[in-house]
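Re: Re: token formats

Sure, here are both.
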Amino acid sequence: METLAQRFGKVVRDMRVERGLSQVDFGEKCGFYQTYLSRIENGHANPSLNAMEVIANALGVTVFQLFERVRVG
């Protein structure tokens, strides 16, 4: 069974790719290292609420919209 961290990471990766952003470009937009984003996208990191908000903003959505995609899966 997929964990919440894995589902969240997959949604972030899918949304990033939909926007045509590389991990490096997205990391610069978020202010995070590419390695940290890679760990999030692979479900190996548990981002804080603040980090989730930064990620959502960088994707052009609210945290609630981001989590709606996570919930729907």
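Second one below.
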Amino acid sequence: MAQSDFWSDQERAGQTIQTLKALKSQRTPVEQFERDLNDTIELLTILDPTDTVSLDQMERDLSALEGQYERLEIQRFLGQPVDRKDAIVAIHSGAGGTESCDWTQMLLRMYQRWGEQRGLGCQIIDLLPGEEAGVKNVTLIIRGSYAYGYLKAEEGVHRLVRISPFDANKRRHTSFASVDVVPEADEDAPIDIKESDLRIDVYRSSGKGGQSVNTTDSAVRITHLPSGIVVQCQDERSQLQNKAKALRVLKSRLADSERRKKEEAAARDYASKQKIEWGSQIRSYVLHPYNMVKDHRTDYETGNALAVLDGKLDPFMEAYLRWKTQQASR
């Protein structure tokens, strides 16, 4: 960064700065923990066992050290190169009509709130509203340090049990929505996409409107014929911008598909190493007759369902990372 021509290539400079931030985010907590640990050890050597005030302070310091250690342990679990990347999150409503569409919108808000609480950027690039309420499907990009590393815990089917606000008889309903999470690919990722393998459709955006948004065919849908992967983008005003962003998402999905194939090939000899497959129910959110959210992979659960739906997902994500590490070591 000290080189005179550092800013001559804006894109390269931006990538270097992001790399620096990622490295500092790993190193700084370790250095802080080491300093605090050494300070605590020194205080222990001079601590007066009869001084209750000092003992209480030491107890608080040890508790803070324990919390720091647990956070460092979680950071160790995020050791894969893809864990640092931004995350592309796609949420699709299941069978159930308006109920499932409303559940999809609740999940969208949950991930947006989680991102806000961690200081991450959230951008919706495609959204299809439900016919009466809610959202049929939505794709958003969550940007920030280790976004994918944490959000990979959310991939799978999410189940909601509640008294339906759309049922005049106030009956209990069960709704499903699936969540797909892939890391955003780098610009220079070695993924070759042939124009002949693409079918590109343009249509009018279904968003809230704005200058030249709902009056021109600015939205873009790209189908990758060999894999059957379909991506859409409609958040930009320009068709060219939407196409470029959709191609970036397609590239990310293809890169993730290749990565998973390699993981599966490397794990064939280990029957205990499980993968989260599309369609597996990973978590239940029960709002009636009691409040509970339970992850069926890790068995972690909490009775504060409303806090979870407001973005308090870290305990579930951390429990998943521990569980996944244990599965991989068997």
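The chain has three domains: 6-77, 83-186+275-329, 195-266. Confidence is low (pLDDT under 50) at residues 209-214, 269-279.
- S.
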